[in-house]
UniProtKB/TrEMBL annotation:
It comes from Acinetobacter higginsii. GO terms for molecular function: dioxygenase activity; iron ion binding; L-ascorbic acid binding; oxidoreductase activity, acting on paired donors, with incorporation or reduction of molecular oxygen. The lineage of its organism: Bacteria, Pseudomonadati, Pseudomonadota, Gammaproteobacteria, Moraxellales. InterPro entries: DUF2086, Oxoglu/Fe-dep_dioxygenase_dom, Pro_4_hyd_alph. It holds the Pfam family Oxygenase-NA. It comes from the Bacteria. Keywords: Dioxygenase, Iron, Metal-binding, Oxidoreductase, Vitamin C. This is Fe2OG dioxygenase domain-containing protein. Its cofactor is L-ascorbate. Gene3D superfamilies: q2cbj1_9rhob like domain. The keyword Iron applies. Residues 130-243 form the Fe2OG dioxygenase domain. SMART domains: P4Hc.
Length: 245
């Protein structure tokens, strides 16, 4: 690893540590997602994109159309993860644990997440979930991702990340991130975002709590990507739980 890359990774960690976590926490409680702008430099985004063809980095490739997941391709990284991804995964997790534990507590779910990511991975491994889940996604013109949730076994962390590696309206057009919120006995609510290159988006994996007249209830959420009109869109997904397969 080059000294310049180490310096850039430290800059990424500094941006995570100095983010306004009180505001992020409030946004997560209110809407189920929050954005930290310009976490990855253009150089780091390009480095990840250029590594896409390096087969030794990945354990599995999925053609989305084959499984009716959409149109495009994604690849799961294998362990050991690239240093940048490993550092982001471990460094940001402790900031998300209080949010996750608060959600489970108000929804009366009997689980508490440990403070540090390696301890959580041990829980995954005890349930046979030992495979890496961070992934890189590539969409061309007409590509899209259907609404879904990223659950890979009995053990899961309720929050995940995505970083768009391409620049909207330069490298591609279209390709907005879409969230749907299913409120019980009501129509679904849709929310659309277009993060810029290098922005880090934190969002719920499956649900968030909502306060009602008789206490908190669970609101199911899904996410997807709208069709790409032109160009290519790459993104990095970071999921905190490991997978069975």
């Amino acid at each position: 690893m080059q000294p310049s890359e180490l310096t850039q990774i430290q800059t990424v960690i500094d941006k995570i540590q100095t983010a306004d976590w009180d505001d992020i926490t409030e946004q997560m409680h209110q809407q189920g997602f929050a954005l930290i702008e310009q976490v990855l430099s253009t150089e780091l985004c390009e480095m990840l994109k250029q590594a896409y063809p390096q087969t030794e980095l990945y354990r599995k490739t999925v053609e989305m159309q084959r499984y009716r997941f959409g149109r495009g391709e994604y690849k799961y990284f294998t362990y050991p993860l690239p240093n940048l991804i490993e550092r982001i995964r471990h460094e940001i997790y402790p900031y998300l644990v209080p949010i996750a534990n608060a959600w489970f507590r108000v929804l009366k779910l009997e689980h508490s997440f440990p403070s540090f990511h390696p301890e959580f991975l041990q829980q995954c491994h005890q349930q046979g979930q030992t495979l890496a889940t961070p992934l890189i996604l590539k969409y061309g013109q007409g590509g899209f991702n259907t609404l879904h949730q990223d659950l890979y076994g009995e053990v899961y962390f309720p929050i995940q990340l995505v970083i768009v590696l391409s620049q909207p309206n330069v490298d591609f057009s279209g390709g907005e991130l879409v969230f749907t919120q299913q409120i019980p006995r009501a129509q679904s609510k849709a929310m659309v975002m277009q993060p810029q290159q290098g922005d880090l988006l934190i969002f719920t994996t499956q649900f968030k709590p909502e306060k009602g007249s008789q206490g908190y209830y669970r609101v199911q959420m899904k996410h997807g990507v709208s069709p790409i009109h032109q160009g290519e869109r790459y993104s990095l997904g970071i999921i905190f739980h490991d997978a069975v397969s």
